[in-house]
Design brief:
alpha+beta; single chain; eight-stranded mixed sheet; binds flavin-adenine dinucleotide; Alpha-Beta Plaits; about 30% strand; about 400 residues; about 35% helix; globular; FAD/NAD(P)-binding domain; 2 domains
Length: about 400
């Protein structure tokens, strides 16, 4: 079997794999992307990047690529929780990175970034399904390309194969998972009567329903709905679209937004429990993006975490001759910021997602304190995970100080 040699192989050409391939090829690395899809379709994935992720994209030099893919800035976030009056926030002037949010159509971004990787000199093989690590140990992979199995070797293999990553298993990584709590369903809609300059979030507490609207430049709107796994049913396909709309309206979305709406893609839903690998580097294999750690989509951190992974790994690789050291330094930093996101997420779930008398009492105590001083809640989801999460901060969050 012929063996091709590279500096880096990425297993997967999603946001993580394609972005890493582009930025490392820009530095002159020989990069191979192995991507199983020949054509990207709507997989109902993230299409709304929060402010701190926009800064990561700028830092990586891919923000213009994302704009070329049809992405656009969204200046406002409006959140209506329970019976409280909606709170409207201008993101550019109220977030630490002073940046708006950014919405796009995921398949177009994958396509444009892979083209960017090609233009920078990376080799991209589409329709190439990786089936495992190869005969040369962890620094090689086996893939079926054009119907035949081929082996490729590299200094570094990067598992960028998403939420259901198989590289995690092949590389011997231990996977941790939060308990099941929420399903996240998503649907792209055309002709929706929602304002196009604002991301909307509607939430009711007694049923733990959360609806989100992300307008796209094309005039379409990506709608998500988060609901408890205890309901037992995962919304999917045309048969469930009316239920998706009914539950979104129940969550607080004005019914008139849906009056003329037409589905423009598939309806699919996913179990949202966070899944992650501790220390996502081992023996020549690094994990990035959802493969390294996928948080609950409800909090919109996945795209930003993925770009943070790309930036941190890139910076370590270009500053170390020894890529084993670089991999461990990346993994150590990943553990820090992922833990901050996952911890702040679990704190928010206690206040905003849990149901029952104890959760109601917690909300009655905490929400007025947050309204009085919003810094108590922490701005991690918009401004990023670069802050401590010690006991005094936890107590302040829950109003126990
Ligand atoms: C319903 C839902 C809503 C979301 N909403 C948001 C949001 O609003 N904001 C946000 O920031 N994040 C959101 N996310 C998360 C976001 O989509 C992910 O964090 C992001 O897509 C991760 O990118 P990735 O490159 O790591 O993985 P992916 O985008 O999953 O890409 C993985 C790639 O690897 C390829 N691949 C997989 N296995 C193989 C193999 N064996 N061989 C070759 N190729 C392979 C796949 O074809 C794919 O192209 C959401 C996720 C879901 C499920």
């Amino acid at each position: 079997m012929a063996v091709d040699n590279y500096d880096i192989i990425t297993i997967g050409g999603g946001l993580g794999g394609a972005a890493l391939a582009k930025v490392m090829a820009d530095y002159g690395a020989r990069v191979l992307v192995l991507e199983s899809e020949t054509r990207f379709r709507d997989r109902v994935r993230g299409e709304a990047m929060v402010s701190w992720g926009v800064c990561e994209a700028m830092e990586l030099g891919i923000y213009e690529n994302l704009k070329d893919a049809g992405g656009w800035d969204i200046e406002y976030l409006e959140a209506a929780f329970g019976n409280n009056a909606p709170v409207r926030r201008h993101l550019r002037t109220t977030t630490e990175p002073s940046a708006p949010r950014f919405n796009f159509f995921h398949p177009d971004v994958q396509e444009v970034l892979l083209q960017g990787a090609l233009d920078a000199g990376a080799t991209v093989k589409r329709g190439a399904r990786v089936s495992g690590l190869g005969t040369q140990g962890s620094r090689s992979v086996l893939a079926t390309v054009d119907g035949s199995e081929q082996e490729f070797t590299a200094r570094l293999v990067v598992g960028a194969d998403g939420r259901y990553s198989r590289t995690r298993g092949w590389g011997g990584f231990q996977t941790s998972e939060n308990p099941d709590q929420t399903f996240c369903a998503g649907l792209l809609l055309d002709e929706m009567g929602a304002p196009d300059d604002t991301t909307h979030n509607f939430r009711i507490f007694h049923k733990s329903l959360n609806a989100l609207l992300f307008p796209q430049r094309s005039g379409k709107v990506r709608a998500y709905l988060c609901y408890p796994t205890t309901w037992g049913e995962q919304l999917s396909a045309a048969k469930d679209i009316q239920r998706f709309i009914d539950w979104s309206v129940e969550a607080g979305t004005p019914a008139e937004f849906f009056a003329d709406a037409v589905p423009a893609g598939p309806l699919a839903s996913f179990n949202s429990a966070s899944t992650w690998a501790e220390h996502p580097y081992c023996g020549g294999v690094a994990l990035i993006g959802d493969a390294a750690g996928a948080t609950d989509p409800m909090w919109g951190q996945g795209l930003s975490l993925t770009l943070r992974d790309v930036r941190v790994l890139r910076d370590q690789l270009i500053s170390h001759d020894d890529w084993d050291e670089a991999g461990h330094a990346y993994a150590q930093e990943h553990d820090r910021y992922f833990t901050v996101c996952n911890t702040v997420q679990s704190w928010n779930e206690k206040v905003l997602v849990e149901t029952g008398p104890e959760a109601d009492a917690r909300r009655a105590h905490v929400l007025p304190l947050w309204a009085e001083d919003p810094t108590r809640r922490l701005d991690t989801f918009a401004s990023g995970p670069d802050h401590p999460i010690d006991e005094p901060i936890r107590r302040r969050f829950f109003g126990e100080d």
